[in-house]
Input
Amino acid sequence: MAYSDFTLSDLEEKFGIKNERKQIQFTHKLVEPSERLRIELEESAEMPIKSEKARSEWIVVPILRELRRQNSNFFTIYSGDMLIGDKLTGLQGECDFILAKDTKSYEISIPIFQIVEAKRNDLDEGIKQCSAQLVGARKYNERKGIITEKLYGCTTTGDVWQFIEYSDKLYIDDKKYYLVKIDELLGIFQSIIDYYVSALK
Output
């Protein structure tokens, strides 16, 4: 199996990881985008974004670069890299985006955030894949002796973003966030980064 083959039922049956839909309570403030990001997103709105590749280049990557700049390069962005959580159980495969704590390593150091581009704009399918990648990321970190109470991820169409928190179970956010409210979206990401800055001292 690969991450994209897992369902939420598979994760519960194979690993005992339950899931629950609820509104995740992020402690966040609105974060105003820089002028640079505003221009990039305005330009993206003029483009015929029809593919996942275009969505990555015009929407997702500019947002991630902005967050990296605003946080003193706390994390590194991996795009299309393999993450092997556990070969024996099939928790492995290529990931759209992995954010990992920046340790100056060429290889993925400590994966802290998974982003899955929703195929055919299907957020539900993206939720399944992202959930499996979060389980894989936790196993990857545990092999290195890195334990965090929570891991986060999201799936996105570019315009719509839905988050997942993995702690004692997989919590799938009932609330969706939208690109048109970029200050709120950046605020959510910032609250998650703040958590990791504290947890990975």
Remarks:
- The helical segments are 8-15, 35-45, 52-70, 123-143, 182-199.
- The first strand starts at residue 19 and ends at 22.
